[in-house]
Amino acid sequence: MLRYLPIRKVHARQVLDSRGNPTVEVEVTVGEGVVGINGYTARAMVPSGASTGKFEAVELRDGDKGNYVGLSVEKAVCNVNTKLADAVLGENALNQAYLDAVLIETDGTENKSSVGANATLGVSMAVARAAALALRIPLFQYLGGCHTNRMPVPMMNILNGGRHADNTVDLQEFMIMPTGAANFPEALRMCAETYQFLRILLRQKNLSTAVGDEGGFAPDLEDSRDVLLLIMEAVRRAGYEPGKDISIAIDAAASELYDPEKGAYYFPGESRMKGSDVLRDAREMVTYYETLLDEFPIVSIEDGLQEDDWEGWKYMTEKLGGRLQLVGDDLFVTNIKRLKCGIRLQTANAVLIKVNQIGTLTEALETVDMARRAGYRCIVSHRSGETEDSFIADLAVAAGAGQIKTGAPCRSDRNAKYNQLLRIHEYLGNLSVYENPFERS
Questions:
Q1: Domain assignment of residue 2, yes or no
Q2: Which residues are catalytic?
Q3: Interhelix angle for 412-428 vs 184-204, to 10°?
């Protein structure tokens, strides 16, 4: 039995993400002997967010306006090739928790601002993939164990707004969840068909079929109710029953709407369409969501209030937590300390898992474990600036999360994750499990 798998080489480079911005790619070679002989090399690419929480670990960028408009990541790349490589070379690739601790210690800051979370994460992911390759087992089994078999329900973004699109829709993501599907391939088909019927519907109404960062359509619409009515019609046209076959999820990204000077949430698109300022305080936001819940089969709302409003989140959880999933993204930023605070205050009932928010796999999986022990659901998520790397597909299965956010069935950076999940389902065969997460105890 293989017990020691030395890291022989670590190399990073600057590549491009789905928005054409630079990001970090890391290659790690493991195994005995000379590099390239009896060795295994794997690579990982780091995603990047547009709507980012202020408590996220630091994504290190160069700031040189003459180089990719200040977004180059050459400093992070250099940190991988020097500081982090020096720290992990010769270490055992099979000891992920120890290696991630070494990366954290090498950075030495609370938020990874020294070497950059994009540097530490690239190494963390690449080491895990190289170890799985060397052991000749799928990545999801390496991370999750031999009994791992739960496939995630897609939380598929089909209409974009907010920071993810240049339109009048204020809430950031409107998603469909095939909660009535029998298995993952059927779930993906149901979502893709609904997405295509939404495209047809938008054309018939002379609305834009241009897409946002995550592949969802981005038409100008008056308000969220208009968006939801369109989605309901698209679901029905695709031959499915809203609330039974397909449910709806929303990412409000409320931190992006909050205006501290006004002390309220400002809806710029809705204000423009209605000709007067639309402002809502925290309690009015909760009432607003209640109104939508009464009319539409919404099962999940993410970031319904801004990231600093613990009191508002507690109120929202008390009012709505028994009716649907309330997901903390900017609120928790995949950080075990912030999640612990949320659990103590009884805020939200689910957590979004974004590995680049925290900077190592071990820390992300520790957050999953804490959430599960507290009875919180978990959703593994992509970022708006994605890559062709399908890592999070394996992670969603490995963590047994039961839900995944990875965009519309549009563009290869999003479909790479769905296609990997199809492969995993095929690999598992009859052992593959697909369940409605809202019917689990």
A1: no
A2: 214, 354
A3: 150
Residues spanned by the domain of 317: 150-439
- Which residue type sits at 158? I
Cα–Cα distance list, 394 to 98, 150, 293, 358, 378 (Å): 21, 11, 32, 18, 15
- Tokens for 152, please give them: 């995630």
Residue-level pLDDT at 246: 98
pLDDT digits (tens, 9 = 90+) for 296-334: 999 999 999 999 999 999 999 999 999 999 999 999 999
pTM of the model: 0.95
Among 425, 372, 429, 422, residue whose Cα is nearest residue 401: 372
Residues 6+ apart with CB under 8 A from 207: 219, 220, 221
Residue 160 and residue 112 share a domain: no
Instruction: Give how many domains the chain has, as a whole number.
Output: 2
**What Cα–Cα distance (Å) separates residue 180 from each residue in 48, 158, 232, 240?**
32, 18, 15, 10
**Residue 20 is part of a domain; what is its CATH number?**
3.30.390.10
90 exposure class (CB count in 10 Å sphere: 0-12, 13-18, 19+): exposed
Give me the pLDDT at residue 166, please: 76
- Cα 360 to Cα 103: distance, rounded to the nearest angstrom: 8
* 279 and 362 housed in the same domain: yes
Pairing of strands 156-160, 173-177: antiparallel
Same domain, 120 and 155: no
In a domain, 1, yes or no: no
Mean pLDDT taken over the chain: 95
Say how many CA atoms lie within 13 Å of 241 toward its Cβ: 5
Q: Assess whether pLDDT exceeds 70 at residue 146.
A: yes
